[in-house]
Amino acid sequence: MHRAWRLTKRRLVASIPVLAIVILGTFLLMELAPGDAVDAYLVSLGGGDAGLAETLRQSYGLDQSAISRLWLYVSSLARLDLGWSIVFNRPILDVVLERLPNTLWLMGAATALAFTLGSLLGIIAGARPGSAVDRVLSIGSLTLYAVPGFWLGLVLILVFSVQLRWLPTSGIETIASGKTGIARVLDIARHLVLPVASLGFIYLALFLRMMRAGMGEVWRQDFVLAAKAKGLSRRRIVIHHVARNALLPLVTMLGLQAATMLGGSVVIESVFAIPGFGRLAQEAVAGRDAPLLMAIIIVSAVLVILVNLLVDIAYAWLDPRVGGSEAAGR
Amino acid sequence: MSIPEISRRGLMQSTAVLAGAAVLPRWGFAQDAMQGGRLVVAADSEPRNLNPAIVASNGVFYIASKIIEPLAEASFDGPDGLAPRLATSWQGSDDGLSVTFKLREGVTWHDGKPFTSADVAFSAMEVWKSLQNIGRTVLANLETVDTPDELTAVFKFSEPTPLQLIRNALPVVSSVLPRHLYEGTDIAENPANNEPVGTGPFVFAEHRPGEYYRLTRNEAYWGDGEPKLDELIFRVLPDRAGAAAALEAGEIQLAAFSQVPLSDLERISANSELEVVTKGYEALTYQLIVEINHRNEVLKNLKVRQAIAHAIDKTFVVDTVFLGYAAEATGPVPKNAPEFYEPDVTQYPFDVEKAKALLDEAGYPAKDGGARFSIRLLPAPFFSETRAMGDYLKQALAVIGVEAELVSNDAPGHLNAVYKDHDFDLSIGAAVFRGDPAISTTNLVQSGIPDGTFFSNQGGYANPEIDKIIAEALVTVDTQKRIELYDEFQKRVTADLPLINVADWGFTSVVSVDVLNVGNNPRWVVSGWADTEIAA
């Protein structure tokens, strides 16, 4: 994996300025938003006198200038200290580590669903472009893609939880159930079915369309003509020659989708009351908790950078033509 | 005097409540109640600080009131509208300089230590008076608390302080903390603020952030045979539609504070396992108000303010914005506060022609194709109803030839614009009536309040006569005289319109029919729930 290591190194170095811009941008945006963490907190209090606000500002360090707060934040970040959350009144690292796994499970499962089902259906649609099956699949997937995530989630809840009562409406696991081991894993899996479906189904269309479009192009290639001339069965041509070659761009798409899915999980996590990363971001903004929001964005950025790195490595491995030039450092 | 109209929906709703009360002797006869059981209720937020002695807000009380108790709780039929909790009696001196509380005997903290007057003295001086958002105002003149014996606490004030005010403030202000856990620590940052220890019917067991709070039965609770439940769970459900679904699926048994949107109530009430309850919010009345910036030369003109008041169809607001779950307001004190409510005040019936005529008189004639004048309207984002009222007022003002530009902010943005930067002309706000006008009502019109004090008069209104009444009522010990002062206050406020009260509303709870004793006190949702049970 010598090539992969060089690629990794290049990517990590390149990601440092990206992270710096992300941090500065987030800080500026939060500064520009009217009101600070104390204002947000006083809303939940139902008011309070000016003296109270002043005391709180001092204790949160919000009475200092923006520049000195940014400097404090960056210097503690350099020591890998994410700081203290104002909204949760706990170390940010604890809050982040508590929420991240839920979102990773949700995103991972939803991506797997969208990718496998999407590319499978894409192969079926692309096997006979223009056929009735193709039309139905295309229209169906586009409809799903056009549906807002929260609405799909609510409809699934109404059907499967309220009407049929097959699955729980929300949450990540049964409350205070005392379950451990396999029973607990199954319990969490049961709770994830609907959120994964609502998040996954929306992105499924993308993979389906891309697979189908890719296959459409490959059909016109000379080697397909050659395969046909050899007298291979249509099934064999579809699977071994057409689909296989159309699959590569989907891997790229997988990396790009990681970021979009993080965004989509904000909505899905709220609807299904899953204590995840997306909901945390929303709570951080509502509470004007700048350090928490920055931590969330930094971790998300690192996550996206990592996923894309993995995709690149996978790509270089799958298709030597593409990865070669960059990995060789030319 | 004109009796405010009761909307048809409001009427239907109150009949429904009556019908509910007829069916409800569920709490009278304790029909086959199951001993124990787990009650799961929805919570829409997780307060940063779960200590009601510091943060006296409904969001905190909703959870913490089950763990930490006040000296007295609001009551429908108790003397002075109170039911004793940690205090069994309260007596004021004639000069208004002291109040003596007799405390309940044999009460222990959840950690086994005895509850004494030292806890009350500590809480009052170090927490309510110094740190609490409401207590800092109400108890500003509290000098010392003497503890002649373990079960007596004597509050000493530097200025005459009406017992009536102290009584009315008790349910909100007087959550007692265990001195032995707080003394000598940084009270605001004490770990017990997030894992509270109290004397209440339920003991804090665990908090899984983003998921739930779990409280368990306090085996040593002082109430006879209470609490009835074994376990109480607050499940965090941030999405309102999600809470409705969880109720319908039977996963939770109660959602309070109108967490189920009003528009879903019709569908919900068709479900025979659930009922919509409006009782239990009487002492938590919210007031929909139009706040006015009197720095604006146009709005400074009383005729213009009167015109705006006449342009608002309160019946429409109650029926459409609140779907009938509200009452038309006549002035700064809601009807739900019968002790203070004065119906004989200046009224502004919906009258477009009169509004137009007033604007003509004020010197803002109608212009061809243009507006008489234009203003910026900032609806508070706290409730869907305040936002909807913003949309309505814009249209209502257009009818009388006033152009309103809607400016939307999120909560911190709105607070800054209205209460700190004064960057508004009209704002749709939500005020809370907390049992006594002196707690959070008079400050909506009083002058001289520092900039940046949220939910107070930041419209630059100053009326020396009203200020005088407010100041006098604050030190008037005689209850009857004090009530008369507030009657005068209501008359003057409605005559001079420093702000416009549009509607008063309580919230709704959606509850499983199996839950008994729901809404049996005026602050039920934020009270201890010692007698709440689940039917077998």
Automatic annotation (TrEMBL), chain A:
SUPFAM superfamilies the UniProt entry points to: MetI-like (SSF161098)
Do the record's keywords include Transmembrane? yes
Q: Which UniProt keywords apply?
A: Cell membrane, Membrane, Transmembrane, Transmembrane helix, Transport
Location relative to the cell: Cell membrane
Membrane topology (UniProt): Multi-pass membrane protein
Q: Which GO terms describe its cellular component?
A: plasma membrane
What residue intervals traverse the membrane? 12-30, 104-124, 136-160, 188-208, 246-272, 292-311
Domain (ABC transmembrane type-1) ranges? 100-315
The yes or no answer to whether the keyword Cell membrane is present is yes
Instruction: Classify the source by domain of life.
Output: Bacteria
A GO BP term, please?
A: transmembrane transport
The record's similarity note reads: Belongs to the binding-protein-dependent transport system permease family.
- What is the name of the protein in this document? ABC transporter permease
Organism annotation:
Pseudohoeflea suaedae
TrEMBL record, chain B:
**Residue intervals passing through the bilayer:** none
Domain annotation Solute-binding protein family: ranges? 82-437
Keyword Iron-sulfur present in the record's keywords: the answer is no
Q: Which SUPFAM superfamilies match?
A: Periplasmic binding protein-like II (SSF53850)
Supply the alphabetized keyword list: Signal
**Top-level taxon in the UniProt lineage:** Bacteria
Subcellular localization is given as: Periplasm
One Gene Ontology molecular-function label: peptide transmembrane transporter activity
Alphabetical list of Pfam families matching this protein: SBP_bac_5
Q: What processes does the entry annotate via GO biological process terms?
A: peptide transport
Which InterPro entries does the protein's record reference? Peptide/Ni-bd, SBP_5, SBP_5_dom, TAT_signal
Q: Which GO terms describe its cellular component?
A: ATP-binding cassette (ABC) transporter complex; outer membrane-bounded periplasmic space
Give the family, as the similarity comment puts it: Belongs to the bacterial solute-binding protein 5 family.
Q: What is this protein called?
A: ABC transporter substrate-binding protein
